[in-house]
Amino acid sequence: DTGVSQDPRHKITKRGQNVTFRCDPISEHNRLYWYRQTLGQGPEFLTYFQNEAQLEKSRLLSDRFSAERPKGSFSTLEIQRTEQGDSAMYLCASSLDRSSYEQYFGPGTRLTVT
Amino acid sequence: DQQVKQNSPSLSVQEGRISILNCDYTNSMFDYFLWYKKYPAEGPTFLISISSIKDKNEDGRFTVFLNKSAKHLSLHIVPSQPGDSAVYFCAASSSFGNEKLTFGTGTRLTIIP
User: With an 8 Å Cβ cutoff, is A44 touching chain B?
Assistant: First the structure.
């Protein structure tokens, strides 16, 4: 078990560009979450997948954001037409099933929009 | 609105003494609570959790206490060690809400050798 991995770890992009992040959860975990953390704040929920189904999206997730988990394994989070306000740490977490509340986080992708 | 609050942004404790981190919540639907520890440039690491049917859970040097009537929980670390220096986040979850976590703003704990 190698834990949750995220790629890339850092991304610097210019305003208006599109970016895509990848998350590989712990292999037997069927639940996958995306969170965003800005300076001085705790992580904030963005969206949640159970297997390949996206079951909930936060109002924080504007229409410029899209997430997929095509085969119920890895997930991608895409941000289109990035804005400076998108600069944050994007965290992915996974958990085993409904009976397990503990979520295990990856190291995050730090996005800087210039 | 901040549903989970950690009112102390920072805390300094002498090595070997007890560290007590506090957390308050407002949403009565929360029924599971967790503490995470975070080092710089890393994701949060799960530390300990407690269900709302309990008032205490212990794991080695870490104990979490839950006071449901006061909507308050605390994390006790004893004895504190230099490696405990990190930011600690309190998080809450509801079995009615896809178990997504709602986090507090964190408390930076510094252990003084």
Answer: yes
Backbone angles phi and psi of B65, in degrees to 5: -115, 140
Q: Could you tell me which residues come within 8 angstroms of residue A59 by beta carbon, excluding any fewer than 6 positions away? A: none
Whether A41 and A28 have beta carbons less than 8 Å apart is answered as no
Residues of B in contact with A43 (CB under 8 A): 44, 89, 101, 103
Task: Report which of A93, A21, A88 is spatially closest to residue B44, judged by C-alpha positions.
Answer: A93
- Look-up: residue for tokens 């800005």? A38
Computed over every residue of chain A, the mean pLDDT equals 93
Helix%, strand%, coil% for chain A, nearest 5:
5, 50, 50
Q: Which residue has the tokens 């069927």?
A: A30
Question: What is the band of A98 on the pLDDT scale with cuts at 50, 70, 90?
Answer: low
Nearest CA of chain A to the CA of B68: how many Å? 18
Distances (CA, A) of A23 to A8, A64, A102, B17, B20: 9, 19, 18, 39, 34
How far separated are the first and last CA of chain B, in Å rounded?
A: 38
Q: Could you give phi then psi for residue A86, rounded to 5 degrees?
A: -80, -10
The pLDDT tens digits of the residues spanning B65-95 come to 999 999 999 999 999 999 999 999 999 998 8
Amino acid, res. B66: L
Written as six digits, the tokens of B78 are 């004893």
Mean pLDDT of A47-69: 92
